[in-house]
Recover the amino acids of this structure.
């Protein structure tokens, strides 16, 4: 399914007539949804966009691009629902402005959920803010906990003001065959709480087969006002956390208690 969203000065709101069910939470097939930007670069806005990645008849790809997504308090842009075992070829979210979501940009963290990705997860050219701005539980900005993965990249993005922690991959992931790359981003005030014990918390020391690189990023203003900076770690302090290769990053107003 391919959906083009025409530019409109008025935001689109996801509303459905009586008896018509919103198909996005139970989505289970290929989807490309993109905004038709103006020559000046203005993007159409969708209020309340949120979707699920559910098991389909075959593995499928999801691409979301060139949109302003105002979550209006929804939990996430994209999620694997509880007890779903979903196989996809790729998840790509690019050239989007994403804001006002209560929990995550993308996640597989609900009970019993599994995500198996044969290709890539790519976040590229995002401006994302006010994603779990209070830093409450269950709201790690990028959060995958169970399944099998190949390559995961976050690049060319500006992300600020939100997240219990910024980047979390849990030890219940059974295989990660490719690389994790976080490059050319500006990350500011994205680790609001310390209970994930690290900004980059990747618990895959026995699983990750490729490289983990954090390079050419601006990392600024880490931990919200009033937080205990002595508990903060750049690399996750849980057992099994992978230390990435850091290169050419700039840090400002930043506390790091790693050994």
């Amino acid at each position: 399914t391919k959906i083009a969203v025409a530019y409109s000065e008025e935001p689109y709101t996801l509303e459905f007539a009586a008896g018509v069910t919103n198909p996005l939470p139970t989505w289970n097939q290929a989807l490309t949804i993109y905004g038709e930007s103006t020559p000046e670069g203005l993007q159409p806005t969708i209020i309340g966009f949120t979707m699920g990645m559910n098991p389909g008849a075959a593995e499928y790809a999801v691409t979301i691009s060139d949109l302003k997504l105002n979550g209006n308090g929804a939990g996430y842009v994209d999620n694997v629902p509880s007890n779903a075992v979903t196989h996809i070829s790729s998840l790509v979210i690019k050239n989007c402005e994403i804001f006002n979501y209560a929990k995550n940009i993308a996640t597989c963290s609900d009970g019993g959920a599994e995500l198996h990705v044969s290709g890539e997860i790519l976040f590229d050219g995002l401006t994302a803010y006010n994603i779990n701005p209070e830093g409450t539980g269950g709201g790690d900005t990028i959060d995958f906990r169970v399944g099998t993965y190949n390559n995961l990249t976050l690049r060319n993005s500006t992300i600020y003001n939100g997240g219990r922690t910024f980047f979390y991959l849990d030890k219940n992931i059974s295989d990660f065959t490719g690389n994790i790359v976080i490059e050319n981003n500006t990350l500011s005030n994205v680790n609001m709480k310390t209970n994930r014990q690290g900004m980059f918390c990747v618990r895959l020391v026995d699983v990750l087969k490729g490289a983990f690189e954090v390079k050419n990023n601006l990392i600024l203003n880490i931990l919200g006002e009033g937080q205990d900076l002595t508990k903060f770690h750049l690399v996750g302090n849980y057992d099994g956390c992978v230390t990435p290769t850091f290169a050419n990053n700039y840090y400002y107003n930043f506390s790091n208690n790693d050994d």
Q: What stands out?
A: The mean pLDDT is 93. The chain has no helices and 27 strands. Residues 101 and 131 are 5 Å apart (CA to CA). The radius of gyration is 18 Å.
